[in-house]
From TrEMBL:
Protein name stated in the entry: Alpha/beta hydrolase
Taxon lineage: Bacteria, Pseudomonadati, Pseudomonadota, Alphaproteobacteria, Acetobacterales
GO MF term set: hydrolase activity
Domain Serine aminopeptidase S33, residue spans: 75-177
Keyword terms: Hydrolase
Record-linked InterPro entries: AB_hydrolase_fold, Hydrolase_4
SUPFAM superfamilies from the UniProt entry: alpha/beta-Hydrolases
Any matching Pfam family: Hydrolase_4
């Protein structure tokens, strides 16, 4: 075989193997769970209790819940990112507690000791169960804030778009436009990612359906989810949107770099907190 033909054949083989690996192992690229159950082991989390909720497809999921200290305080439905488990978000609960807010952190299926396997449809079912639990506890819709982190932002957008009138505001921390856009950005050699990816998490297409105020938080130096994706979501939204970009922040630094204060001020105005 001619050397050029050998090179073309080798390139094609590598491409086919790469595409096959992505199709078979894509869940490992998208979801990075810590499967062990986290523990509530900090004095600052004394108001937090571990419990379970049941999804519409029958899974029992771990939740960490904390009641608000005042009837007019926000209650955050927190939907975390693709890595780790709830234990990596203890500091968030401590911040919520210090402000007197309530919170419900939902542990995804397949994470933190939960049964099941994560998927786009499955995570949305998990979020629905978390919202239903807050509603069953009697929290007013105008006080419920859906806060999504990274991958959780796509679930937050989908939940807010389908549950009109059930929430008061949405916070999107490090949001992306869609998983297809992320695949094109980080795996440019992939042909036709639209045909390869089962889970799409297409927030750009979904966010026009959100009717409550939205806050978008991005880091200017985020190399995983570039800030232009937050700008694109802002442009596609039809509800009131505010956007904050931290110039020197990456993908995991926003809440320690002023982001929490921005969220607090946003909610004080949008939810008319006193």
């Amino acid at each position: 075989m001619h050397p050029i033909a050998w090179a073309l054949a080798a390139t094609l083989l590598i491409l086919v193997l790469g595409v096959g690996a992505v199709r078979l192992l894509q869940d490992r690229f998208i979801y990075a769970p810590t499967r062990e159950a986290p523990e509530l082991d900090e004095p600052a989390l004394a108001r937090v209790s571990a419990g379970t909720i049941t999804t519409e497809d029958g899974l029992r999921l771990l939740t960490w819940s904390m009641p608000p200290q005042r009837a007019d305080a926000p209650v955050v439905l927190y939907l975390h990112g693709n890595g780790g488990n709830l234990g990596d978000r203890r500091r968030r609960l401590g911040r919520f507690a210090a402000l007197g807010w309530g919170a419900q952190m939902v542990e995804w299926r397949g994470y933190g000791g939960n049964a099941g396997h994560p998927s786009e449809a499955g995570l949305l079912r998990d979020a629905r169960a978390g919202l239903a639990a807050l509603q069953a506890q009697g929290h007013a819709a105008g006080r419920i804030v859906v806060w999504g982190e990274s991958l959780g932002t796509a679930v937050a957008v989908a939940l807010a778009a389908e549950r009109h009138g059930a929430i008061g505001a949405v916070v999107l921390e490090l949001p992306f436009t869609s998983l297809l856009d992320l695949a094109a950005l980080h795996f440019p050699w992939l042909p036709a990612p639209r045909l390869l990816l089962r889970d799409r998490f297409d927030s750009l297409a979904t966010i026009p359906g959100v009717t409550v105020p939205v806050l978008i938080l991005s880091g200017e130096r985020d190399i995983l989810v570039p800030p232009w994706m937050g700008e694109a979501l802002e442009g596609a939204a039809t509800a009131p949107v505010e956007r904050w970009v931290k110039p020197d922040a990456g993908h995991e630094e926003l809440t320690t770099e002023g982001g929490f204060a921005v969220v607090t001020e946003f909610l004080a105005r949008r939810l008319d907190l006193r």
